[in-house]
Amino acid sequence: MKYMSITKRWFLTVASLVFVILVAVSFLVYGLIVNYYYGAARMTVEAMNSREINSIFSLYGASTAGFEDAARNYVENFQNKDKLAVWIINRKGKVIVSSNGFSISDDVNMPDYNDALNSPEGTARWIGRLPSGEKIMSYTCTYHYNNGDYGGAIRYMVSMDAIDGQMRIVAVLIASVFVIVFGFLIISSTLFLRSIVGPVKSIGDAAKKIAAGDFSTNIDHYPYNDEIGELCNTINDMADKLGETEQLKNDFISTVSHELRTPLTAIRGWGETLQQMGGSDPEMTERGMEIIISESARLNNMVEELLDFSRMSSGRMRLNTSRIDFLAELDEVIFSFRDRSEREGIEITCNIPDTPAPGIGDASRIKQVFINVLDNAMKYTEQGGKVSVSACMPDPTELAVTITDTGCGISKEDLPHIKEKFYKANNTVRGSGIGLAVCDEIMNLHGGSLEIDSVQGQGTSVKLIFPLEGREKDNE
């Protein structure tokens, strides 16, 4: 796998995501502000009520002269000249009066006027530029006489240059805030990442030294009391304990070597002496043989102790065996699961013979096997399912216990690995993945076997085979 540093990975993921979010927020804020200002301009040009306009113009009668008189009177008395420009357009589409007093060319572009003529409401709005280059927002209202005849139109215009200027300032402010926020994020994150990456590198270097056998390594320069500080303390404790263990191992080897050397020296010395004597002194020969036998027994005990130490260090299991009734142990375990089965809504059925099934075994370990298998059957069976336990003796020397459930089952791919340590076919269910491996080891130590058969989606069957007769298994 290609190496990628934490800092680079952060910039490729978190920083990129934050950048995209900030850009989106910036555009959103800018859009909202633009919409607000343009909305205010739109409200300004659309504030004139068409009914009021009709009432004013209707006073002058349905004639061209009357319309022109009304237009001049309306423009002269218009109170919002400081905000809006007003054009009065006759029925021929010519601007006859303007609030600025200048004559308007006949070929001036008025898209909103044309749209208003075709609009059912008789109004239309347009944003564009005048021939002078000024950007405006215009709003045209058509006027009709009382008899329904078209009389003309009034066009209101507000300059957008000032608003656009404000928008440019807002855009610069938003961009500045964006740069400041993102820059602050990058700087603070870089400093924070350095405070993590640096100690992590130190931890990695320390771990390499410890792996190389330098248990005197310590990490003592991390200033914060947090997760990394706790990790540093843990590594320091680990190094100290490994150092202690290494020292104990060296002391142990030194002591054992000395203890082994003593009887070996005695055995070798007396062997050489007896060889040289050739049996000429029976009394000395007998004494030498006694010493050799005694030192050999001493040496054997030391070797057994070393083997026991090896078994303890490697975790080899030892059984405390006695004569037990396998079915009695099974019955106790099933009884202990009754309450759980009622709570979880899972039926447990039993078909166990009344006759005893005596044999040699470790009662606690046998219970451990039954509990683990039944626990798995319950865990992988949903409410309303069924777990059945049956037992039979195919011959007087063998007991077969079968535990079957109606759970989710195990796939063909997972079934061959199900007894391996730490292997889990279903990670959605609690468990460490070593239960069946332990059970299999216990069964092997008892001279029995554990067999699993399963069909995915239908259930699982676990068969336990116990020997009922035979000598106690040698656990050495």
How would you sum up this structure, described in words?
With 476 residues, the chain is an alpha+beta fold. The protein has three domains: 46-159, 2-Layer Sandwich (Beta-Lactamase), CATH 3.30.450.20; 227-314, Orthogonal Bundle (Helix Hairpins); 322-467, Heat Shock Protein 90 (2-Layer Sandwich), CATH 3.30.565. 53% of the residues lie in helices and 18% in strands. It contains ten helices and twelve strands. The chain has helices at 6-45, 50-58, 64-76, 111-118, 161-211, 227-277, 282-314, 326-344, 363-379, 435-445; strands spanning 85-90, 95-98, 123-129, 135-144, 150-159, 322-325, 347-351, 358-361, 386-395, 398-405, 449-455, 459-467. The strands form three sheets. The chain has a five-stranded antiparallel β-sheet with strand order 2-1-5-4-3, sandwiched between helices. Strands 7-9-10-12-11 form a five-stranded mixed β-sheet, covered by helices on one side. Strand 11 and strand 12 (459-467) form a beta hairpin. Helix 6 (227-277) runs antiparallel to helix 7 (282-314). The chain is elongated and about 160 Å long. 17% of the residues are buried. Residues 470-476 have low confidence and may be disordered.
Write the layout of secondary structure elements.
Elements: H1 6-45, H2 50-58, H3 64-76, E1 85-90, E2 95-98, H4 111-118, E3 123-129, E4 135-144, E5 150-159, H5 161-211, H6 227-277, H7 282-314, E6 322-325, H8 326-344, E7 347-351, E8 358-361, H9 363-379, E9 386-395, E10 398-405, H10 435-445, E11 449-455, E12 459-467
Parallel strand pairs: 7-9
Antiparallel strand pairs: 1-2, 1-5, 3-4, 4-5, 6-8, 9-10, 10-12, 11-12
Helix pairs in contact: 1-5, 5-6, 6-7, 8-9, 9-10
